[in-house]
């Protein structure tokens, strides 16, 4: 392991990864990798998570292709130094900010979107000119194997490496010195990563999670809008990896008088999308492993929680499947309402008035996303200014992930740092300030011995009071 | 009105908890988010400086023997400028930024909204105790946060003055100063903050970041390093020398994070350079620099002893070509230049942070780049040259927080340049709008409508939908039309 990292450091030192043509060639190779291996990728995702090809394309393959293509088209622009304004006082001078690679970076990815969460950061790291060690999650073993075997066939082995293994490998990697660590996963492990990074003063980006709520206020508008709302909620809960996604809708907030309408709409939509019961379930992923399965089943063990189930609840331990399940008002102090669910269980919390959602959300730690289905402009403004989350999406779910111009990241317990689009490039870069000065003219008052005249001169200079300076120099101001 | 907490005999974990609770309550109540509140606080800061300049200068003289000009200009004037800029631009900074949306999410609109992080902790340093405490304030207040400041105990007069002035001029329910040393800092670091900004050294920075990790608190670490100056020949030597002197001894007598730490020049040029230094140093500080009023002293006996250790090391003391005098009772060391100290000496392996300037000589100027990149990344790097190719190489090869060509330290005054380190010199940046950004969360907001709900997003998943999705994500309108018409393969 240490040898691999030493090689990455050597490669970086030679400066090869800084060249734009190297970066472009790697990105193109990555695109080729994806294009030429689509079927294998679909197969691995089906094996690890039971994802259908459409879900895999929509959430992984398609997202990555879009990301690489966008990055290739913008790279030259991003790499160019940006001019900064310089005040007259410094004349003649030129100021600019130039992005530079950080060096050798470590990327930890998660098991639920094993391709997207590994390769999207990789795109950012390469585009910024770094060498990379990628450590995919061993909880998605087929995908991890695929990455370990396939990446060396397409990308520069001396600059991009993939390491297989579990938590022990992760721990060993964290003992070493990196120039940046990018971590996607749980807050618990996020703390460990940051604590390890602190020993080497390594900057980190932590993409964590939380309980992302969906506020529903559109059921009493038109029937078609209500239907679309239901579709988007179902699509935002069970669509991505059967709820095992950091940006999946965790729970719903709705006014109590509209709860039954919502539940009926959701039931209809679930049946249409996924099937009538657990035996005939289709178009949906499964739970990743026994451990997660047990954790989710345990959430339903609490009798008060079990009583609140209004749809679903069946489980198939052999196939690791839990059918889409809706709960109505489980106890607020139950685990299902205090932990991030990360699975196909959807609690619906009712409120007297939908505006109470704001206080409810604020009573929990900052989520990664807040979804709000509402057409009330005042309410939208209140949600924006009175809550805090990584992102806010109005009237839809999940799609903000596709927007390359929006920074994707958390705040508070949902993480810090961000990526996607240019933000990926920035997160793996150091923005170096550069000031070019000329030898002339010289400002004598800069130098000792200090006098009152020099003091006054500098005071005026610092205020950019050019007129005052002229007066002083002409003798019209007294020091 | 200073809170009772600071008057307690011991500031312990419970006291720290109380402080954070009070500030969090103020933040949640929305006090600091209000634009008027932010304006009032920034104006109060300006008033505080206007009405107390002599006291501030006196405190800095107490703590550091800082010459009045350095205090007035590098601490007070710079801060005032920073404050005025924030007052002028804050409204603009607070406005949401529009973001472009793509075909994949059509129809939609997007923006990025800046929101305050919450309750932030600023731990500042002793060398520019006023500037480094209040400059972060400006960003934190402009961004709408509540603040706790922990000034350095190594500059106690300034720390007390800050505590008094902030309590008198600013809103104590949202902004507090906690004085103290290690125990108080530890108590503060146990708490949950929304951001911590630390200015200081790498050893403490590791402790700060480890403490922040427990609460997943993001940090800005403004550290230091050995800032090198490369001096090429064929330049205006007098101007270059003066600018190096101004950046070294003119900045708190070398005790500044961006002070030139050491010089690299060619063997051929070294003698001329040393002569130029001798000449200019005498012009600036006189024949007896230990008595010059225009030099700060070394801050305390610990640092004095540390610097003497660097200077008196056997293989180093023989390399002194100018200076070397010291006055222990007044904590003064004369501006000292050393020529060709060994690479493995102490003075070349730690940040000097004092009035000693080693000059290392090499054969060709180009060799300096490898010398610099073989060490840890510094906060700043400087080069004096008229050679365009060398300038380009310098900018490309040397990784540092910031670079200046043909001058030293002045980039600090440039609010359009982000000021911060990389690698061992730190993480994060501030000054100007970067201060506002560093204390903000940039929240992404996507507005979608109900029109245009593509059934291809939803199950049942079919091959046709797959083809359409591919075309949509590929962003090509032609592709989409083809897919809709069933002309493309799934």
Automatic annotation (TrEMBL), chain A:
Assigned protein family: Belongs to the aldehyde dehydrogenase family.
GO function term, MF aspect, one: aldehyde dehydrogenase (NAD+) activity
InterPro entries attached to this UniProt entry: Ald_DH/histidinol_DH, Ald_DH_C, Ald_DH_CS_GLU, Ald_DH_N, Aldehyde_DH_dom, Aldehyde_DH_NAD(P)
Lineage: Eukaryota, Viridiplantae, Streptophyta, Embryophyta, Tracheophyta
Domain of life: Eukaryota
SUPFAM superfamilies per record: ALDH-like (SSF53720)
Any GO BP annotation: response to water deprivation
Recorded catalytic activity of this chain's protein: an aldehyde + NAD(+) + H2O = a carboxylate + NADH + 2 H(+)
Native source species: Gossypium raimondii
Limits of the Aldehyde dehydrogenase domain: 3-434
Keywords in alphabetical order: NAD, Oxidoreductase
Catalytic-site annotation from UniProt: 207, 246
Name of the protein in its database record: Aldehyde dehydrogenase
Gene Ontology cellular-component terms listed: cytoplasm
Automatic annotation (TrEMBL), chain B:
Domain (Aldehyde dehydrogenase): residue spans on this chain: 15-445
Annotated family: Belongs to the aldehyde dehydrogenase family.
Keywords: NAD, Oxidoreductase
CC per GO annotation: cytoplasm
SUPFAM superfamilies for the chain: ALDH-like
One MF annotation (Gene Ontology) recorded for this entry: aldehyde dehydrogenase (NAD+) activity
Source taxon at top rank: Eukaryota
InterPro entries noted in UniProt: Ald_DH/histidinol_DH, Ald_DH_C, Ald_DH_N, Aldehyde_DH_dom, Aldehyde_DH_NAD(P)
Protein name per UniProt: Aldehyde dehydrogenase
Gene Ontology BP annotations: aldehyde metabolic process; response to abscisic acid; response to water deprivation
Catalytic residues identified in the record: 222, 257
Classification of source organism: Eukaryota, Viridiplantae, Streptophyta, Embryophyta, Tracheophyta
Catalysed reaction, written as an equation: an aldehyde + NAD(+) + H2O = a carboxylate + NADH + 2 H(+)
